[in-house]
Specification:
CATH architecture of the largest domain in chain B: Orthogonal Bundle
Number of helices of chain B: 19
Helix content of chain A: over 70%
Order of helices and strands of chain A: HHHHHHHHHHHHHHHH
Structural class of chain A: mainly alpha
CATH class of the largest domain in chain A: Mainly Alpha
Largest interface: A-B, 134 and 125 residues
Largest sheet of chain B: 9 strands, antiparallel
Radius of gyration of chain B: 32 Å
Shape of chain B: globular
Strand content of chain B: 5-15%
Oligomer: heterodimer
CATH topology of the largest domain in chain A: MetI-like fold
Shape of chain A: globular
Radius of gyration of chain A: 27 Å
Chain lengths: 323, 547
């Protein structure tokens, strides 16, 4: 969101008096005195909070040692679990070479499959979720309240509990429509899209409700259709929630394992989650280097997303999404 | 909500943009622009084409109920998008169709499956089981010819689970497909055959490799193609000999529809239907492997609560499951809150850096972190034993495995609570703390009596959500321990199993899948989580009232 500062009337008043760069220099000395006091109190405050830093560093050590282990094992040329430690013994890129040139484990294919599934399903989540939220927040129709409650109720039954039914259903679908049966990324994508409308309806509707209704009414008086209101007025104003939901959906799908492992059996159709799991299980010691190298590359999109867009993600977390 | 609602300025800007500008006086008065119309009708047409294709495939396969459902969806699309009526439906239809097909149908199917015995040995209808038994019992008639054989599954079906079919070539070079439904001619277009006439590739079929055939030897042993007469009654069967030949023969086991029994003409044994299986009369010998699927009422549920072995195993898993979820919520919350309190000091600098780094365990995908932790717990080479000079059999001993699971989940989950508590702490007004200090409360007392109750009200619902999530935390358990270790001769019930990992193993993990029982467990889990969440929400409500 933009900062409200630019139009703040109090700031304007200060500006009208001119800046604090006074001609007599009195203000300058005052400012430097203030500065001195601040640094002093800061120095003093470090003495007061050093133990907080010490404990925080301890927490950091706990949080980061497995991650350091991942990074150093990925660059450990020996490439086995027995030679991996917190520091790489012989650093190099051999694990990455092995990972990307293994004909039995098509890593880039997995990467591509994961990207296709996550990008398309995220886009679907935004389109279906925003459209449904518009219907529930802006349009008036019978059954609106019941519909909303019903959708929320259905979300109580997580997809992981229905995996047997999904497995058998898609085994049968595959016989008639081979393109979306078991062992295809499109079938899995469809399953993910099943929850696209309902999964985030609460987050969406809550935000849609904060947009003043006067906006749509004014537009309607000017002759705008419902579609026009949706696409040109509402959608630009709800961009923050679109960003939040997009990231939550992407990160959630990127890490999804159960349904992906139920659906995808042949290595050309697998996602990173299933492929990397199979890589490590092939031989826990020998393929460990290859596995961590792949895991490191697989983590990059989500870690970068988290670090760049912490604000939106934290917003989503505090409204009830659990990984 | 963390996102600020749009500011008044933004709203005004949006309003301004609506006012007709000088260049474009009739912005809303004019008709819908042409390109919008083109896109709209293009999408409608595309949807109808896709639905038409689906319907055509369904007609070929003879699924008439699905054909009419597809047609109904097509009519809905036209009624909603091609007219000016039903405005809300325009925004809801695609989402609702997907929800009905992929959330509600699986839900209903799970519930209905939980009342059946669907699983290994009970995969077919009763008619199919009779046909399969008769076809399987065939003996080669002397002097009859043999087919050249290859094995295949329908294209697109999974080679490990798809329905097996015989691809057959008779001595005259004609091609056939043999399935449980009988023998059908195969159009010779596009079929490639080897020198013996054996089919090498055929459109619409995936030929199994020798390894894949080997992997399905158990399925193949029970498989045979019934030969039907004009009335649709099985008169014999086609059965494979070795890997590349099949013979036609006469059945030795025959079903008598009048008495509903199967008689083995070689041994003279009579099999009667009982518990969805063919059981020998007099109780001697085993039942035939081909049983059928039938409704068993509440048997799966009553079994879970009354069968002693099942009940003990399930009780053990249930207790561990609840403990795992509750301990995870408590431990991750306490550690996350402690760190949030630690960082909740205005004088502390570098908070943004700490926060970015502390969030990393939560940011990494769980399949990465759980598998890496599994490797770190390796007894011989693992980092944890190496660093601390221990030799603990982390994943092989039940109690150490449970410790490992809890430790890993603490690591995975505390950043979430750290972030949530940081936000909640900032929302607690400073004067509350001041008031506590004036009343003489020390820091510990302030946290315990003032901060904690306020925090719990704010994060209570999130704790319930976290509990419900961890109750079904399949990913962590499956990737870290696969439910193991399995001790004391137990093959089905592992020491770290959750109900959901048990259901997974029952349904898909072994050679004898039991879909019915696995579905019953899913339904039980749903009710447990629903009840626990309901009680939890009532508690947080009560807490709110106190404040």
């Amino acid at each position: 969101m933009t900062m409200p500062g630019s139009n703040d009337p109090t700031l304007g008043a200060v500006d009208a008096h001119g800046s604090d760069r006074g001609t007599d220099g009195a203000l300058d000395t005052k400012a430097s005195k203030v500065y001195e006091v601040t640094t002093k109190s800061r120095r003093g405050s470090f003495r007061a909070v050093w133990w907080r830093h010490a404990l925080a560093l301890l927490a950091l050590a706990f949080a980061l040692f497995p991650i350091i282990f991942i990074v150093s094992s990925a660059f450990n040329n020996a490439g086995t679990l027995s030679t991996s430690g917190l520091l790489p013994t012989r650093p190099g890129l051999r694990n990455f070479d092995a990972l990307l040139s293994d004909p039995a484990r098509p890593y880039w294919t997995w990467y591509r499959n994961s990207l296709i599934i996550c990008v398309v399903a995220t886009a679907g989540t935004l389109v279906l979720g925003a459209a449904a939220a518009y219907a529930f927040s802006r349009l008036r129709w019978t059954g609106r309240r019941f519909g909303l409650l019903f959708i929320l109720l259905v979300q109580m039954f997580p997809a992981v509990l229905a995996f047997v039914a999904l497995y058998i259903t898609f085994a049968n679908v595959g016989v008639v429509l081979p393109g979306i049966g078991l062992n295809t990324i499109w079938g899995l994508l469809l399953v993910y899209l099943g929850g696209a409308m309902g999964g985030n309806i609460w987050l969406f509707k809550g935000y849609f409700d904060t947009i003043p209704k006067e906006l749509d009414e004014a537009a309607k008086l000017d002759g705008a259709s419902h579609a026009r209101v949706f696409f040109t007025i509402i959608l630009p104003l709800v961009r923050p929630i679109l960003a939040t939901v997009a990231m939550l959906a992407f990160v959630g799908l990127w890490g999804e394992f159960l349904l992906a492992s139920v659906f995808l059996s042949s290595s050309d159709n697998q996602t990173l989650a299933v492929g990397l799991w199979a890589t490590r299980n092939a031989d826990q010691n020998r393929y460990f280097g290859q596995f961590v190298a792949g895991a490191l590359l697989a983590s990059l999109p989500v870690v970068i997303t988290y670090l760049l867009l912490q604000k939106q993600l934290i917003g989503g977390m505090t409204t009830g999404s659990v990984k | 909500m963390s996102q600020a609602p749009p500011t008044r300025d933004e709203a005004n800007a949006a309003l301004r943009s609506l006012r007709p500008s000088d260049e474009d006086h009739l912005e809303f008065g004019q008709r819908t622009p042409l390109w919008v119309q083109v896109v709209k009708w293009g999408l409608i047409l595309l949807t109808l084409v896709v639905l038409g294709y689906v319907a055509q495939q369904l007609i070929e396969a003879g699924h008439w109920l699905m054909v009419s459902l597809t047609a109904f969806v097509g009519i809905c699309v036209l009624a909603v998008y091609a007219t000016r009526r039903a405005v809300p439906a325009k925004y809801l239809l695609p989402g609702v169709v997907l929800m009905l097909a992929l959330q509600i149908w699986p839900l209903l199917y799970t519930v209905s499956m939980s009342f059946t015995n669907y699983g290994a040995g009970h995969l077919f209808t009763k008619e199919e089981s009779i046909a399969s038994i008769e076809a399987n019992s065939v003996r080669e008639v002397e002097g009859s010819f043999r087919y050249a054989l290859n094995l295949a599954v329908p294209e697109g079906a999974d080679v490990a689970t798809g329905d097996i079919a015989y691809l057959l070539t008779n001595p005259d070079g004609e091609f056939f497909v043999g399935t449980l439904d009988g023998l059908e001619p195969l159009a010779p277009e596009g079929v490639e055959a080897g020198p013996t006439g054996r089919i090498i590739s055929a459109p619409g079929w995936t030929i199994l490799t020798p390894q894949e055939v080997n992997a399905r030897s158990a399925d193949l042993a029970d498989f045979a193609v019934p030969v039907l007469n004009d009335a649709g009654e099985a008169t014999g069967g086609i059965k494979q000999v070795g890997l590349s030949e099949a013979f036609v023969g006469q059945p030795t086991r025959v079903h008598d529809p009048e008495t509903d029994t199967i008689t083995d003409q070689v041994t003279g044994t009579v099999y009667t239907p009982q518990d969805a299986q063919w059981v020998p009369e007099g109780g001697e010998g085993g039942a035939l492997p081909q049983g059928w699927r039938e409704n068993v009422g509440f048997e799966n549920y009553t079994d879970a609560f009354t069968n002693p072995t099942l009940r003990d195993g399930l009780t053990k898993i249930f207790i561990w499951n609840v403990f795992f979820a509750a301990f995870t919520v408590a431990s991750t919350f306490l550690l996350g809150m402690a760190i949030a309190l630690l960082m909740n000091d205005e004088r502390l600098r570098g908070k943004a850096i700490y926060r970015s780094l502390l969030i990393l365990p939560y940011a990494l995908p769980v399949y990465v972190t759980a598998l890496v932790w599994a490797s770190m717990f390796n007894q011989e080479f693992g980092l944890i034993n190496n660093i601390f000079g221990m030799n603990i059999n982390w994943l092989g001993d039940p109690n150490w495995a449970r410790t490992a699971v809890l430790l890993t989940n603490l690591w995975l989950g505390f950043p979430y609570w750290f972030i949530v508590c940081t936000g909640a702490l900032q929302a607690i007004p400073g004067d509350v703390r001041e008031a506590a200090a004036i009343d003489g409360a020390g820091p510990i007392r302030t946290i315990r009596s003032v901060i904690m109750p306020l925090l719990l009200v704010a994060v209570g619902p999130l704790m319930i959500a976290s509990f419900a999530f961890n109750f079904n935390n399949f990913g962590l358990i499956f990737l870290l321990t696969e439910g193991g270790p399995f001790v004391g001769g137990q093959a089905q019930i592992g020491s770290t199993d959750l109900l959901i990992t048990l259901a997974y193993r029952l349904a898909l993990g072994g050679v004898t899948p039991n879909f019915g029982f696995a579905s019953a467990i899913s339904v039980i889990i749903f009710f447990l989580v629903a009840v626990i969440s309901y009680i939890g929400f009532r508690q947080t409500k009560a807490l709110e009232d106190v404040n």
